[in-house]
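Shift notes (night). Ran Aminoglycoside phosphotransferase domain-containing protein while the centrifuge was going.
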Amino acid sequence: QIDQYLSVLNELGAELPSGYTEVQKDAERLRTALTLHPLPNCPCHCDPMVENCVDNGKKVFIIDFEYAGNNDPMWDLGDLSVEGNFTQEQEYIFMTSYFGHEPTPFDVGRMVMYKAMCDLLWTLWGVVQHANNNPADDFWTYAVDRLNRCRTLMSSAEFPKHLSAVQRGPNE
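Came back to this:
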């Protein structure tokens, strides 16, 4: 999807936020790590922002499936964590509930990789919206904020530990 958005932006002659190219180059190591021990694709929402979750007090309904498709299930977990601004404690509770057991370093690392990749993807989505003059929001600011959050995560002290766990695989 990132490559598709870059192609669209190239056709539009759109400007990328400052520093995007460097972050994308750095993110290649994430993309590579995620291919070393792939999980089976499964049906995913692919846009699990909190606005797409409706709680009626008894159940939570997920709506708006326009981006849904088969994907690595950790994409949805990473994206929901980013969109919900989860703390590490909330991520732990969420993942423990999802897996039915304590998440492994591989599980946590994979979710963290997808948090970064989600922000990178949604950066480009925001630039596409901006380039198409979508009046619904300030999509340039949205894109820059997403890129900055991605850059901050990837430069955090904990990030190399998560990347290493993904590179080592689930059986380490």
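The chain has a mean pLDDT of 95. The longest strand covers residues 42-44.
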